[in-house]
């Protein structure tokens, strides 16, 4: 929004590197965070790690799919989702994983259930997450409120954190494809990866893996619940708050980055074995935005990616970002004077 109280294209503003850098700084994310996630430090994570001779992170993969029960959208309606999930399952089957597909129980999703069960997935109702953890219960209420408001992306953001926080395991977005997986990752306390948004590296939430009761995830749930209960706005600018892109800062990667930074400041990482994967490692030849799923699927995947002099981490994945939550029409409707928009 400019000085004349005119709302411009908010999503474009939030995608800019200078804006993101300033927003992170205003929320306390400074040099220590960027040094920690930088690949010059993270590339030696396995060398620093201790006690990684046994499995810590449960070998279970979690997927999430929410829809409007009155106007259902099946997961199977997104053809690319199906192919990408099947590719990941084929790779992960080699390492003894089980699979959960978490849904809002009031949705029938008959086709999705049949397809998921054919892959060996167990269909789980998110109400199963309710228990004796008061914070998780509050967060689940927030997620269900988002579902009722048809904000399915935000609901999925919150629910994935509840799942991994309570049960542990590996959460994967439907459009996060895994071609090769290294089981040594499950011997860590947690692993995530950093993704550059307009050159600014933040902790991505399309793949989150951890043992239960991770302080980063608890920080995130506390933040989300507090903001929802106290009706805190994400930005000072009402123009930005009206954008669909605000989800990144309300429940998504930006908010996860804040939670990670807080845990780092509190010393949580000091006695933990972990790695923050980097785009230099997580992709092989499939590392250009122009490379689509079909191109990447044809690459030779027999050569492990270099990690350090002691270990080659055999892990190849890519997030294709289907963008099913994008709503550019919403932002276009908000262009103009805010008073005029409100009247419409």
From TrEMBL:
This protein's GO CC annotations: membrane
GO biological process entries: mannosyl-inositol phosphorylceramide biosynthetic process
InterPro entries in the record: Glycosyltransferase_domain, GlycoTrfase_DXD_sugar-bd_CS, Nucleotide-diphossugar_trans
Record's keyword terms, sorted: Transferase
MF terms (GO), sorted A to Z: mannosyltransferase activity
Protein name, as recorded: Uncharacterized protein
Gene: Contig456.g500
């Amino acid at each position: 929004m400019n000085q004349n109280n005119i709302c411009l294209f908010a999503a474009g503003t939030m995608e800019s590197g200078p804006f993101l850098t300033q927003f992170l700084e205003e929320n306390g994310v400074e040099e220590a965070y960027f040094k920690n996630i930088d690949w010059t430090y993270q590339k030696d994570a396995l060398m620093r790690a201790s006690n990684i001779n046994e499995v810590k992170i449960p070998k279970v993969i979690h997927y999430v799919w929410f829809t409007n029960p009155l106007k259902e959208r099946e997961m199977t309606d997104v053809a690319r989702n199906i192919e990408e999930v099947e590719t990941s399952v084929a790779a992960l089957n080699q390492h003894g994983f089980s699979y959960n597909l978490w849904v809002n129980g009031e949705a029938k999703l008959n086709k999705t259930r049949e397809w998921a069960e054919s892959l060996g997935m167990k269909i789980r109702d998110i109400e199963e997450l309710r228990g004796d953890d008061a914070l998780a219960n509050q967060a689940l209420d927030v997620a269900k409120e988002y579902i009722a408001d048809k904000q399915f992306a935000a609901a999925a953001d919150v629910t994935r954190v509840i799942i991994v926080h309570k049960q542990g395991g590996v959460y994967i977005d439907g459009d996060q494809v895994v071609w090769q997986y290294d089981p040594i990752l499950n011997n860590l306390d947690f692993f995530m990866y950093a993704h550059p948004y307009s050159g600014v590296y933040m902790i991505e939430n399309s793949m989150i893996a951890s043992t239960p009761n991770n302080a980063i995830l608890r920080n995130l749930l506390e933040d989300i619940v507090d903001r929802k209960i106290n009706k805190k706005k994400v930005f000072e600018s009402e123009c930005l708050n009206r954008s669909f892109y605000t989800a990144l800062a309300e429940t998504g990667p930006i908010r996860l980055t804040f939670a990670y930074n807080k845990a780092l400041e509190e010393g949580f990482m000091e006695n933990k074995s972990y790695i923050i994967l980097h785009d230099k490692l997580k992709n092989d030849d499939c590392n250009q935005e122009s490379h689509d799923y079909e191109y990447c699927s044809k690459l030779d995947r027999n050569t492990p990616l270099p990690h350090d002099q002691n270990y080659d981490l055999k892990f190849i994945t890519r997030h294709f970002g289907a963008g099913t939550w994008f709503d550019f029409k919403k932002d276009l409707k908000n262009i103009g004077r805010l008073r005029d928009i409100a009247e419409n």
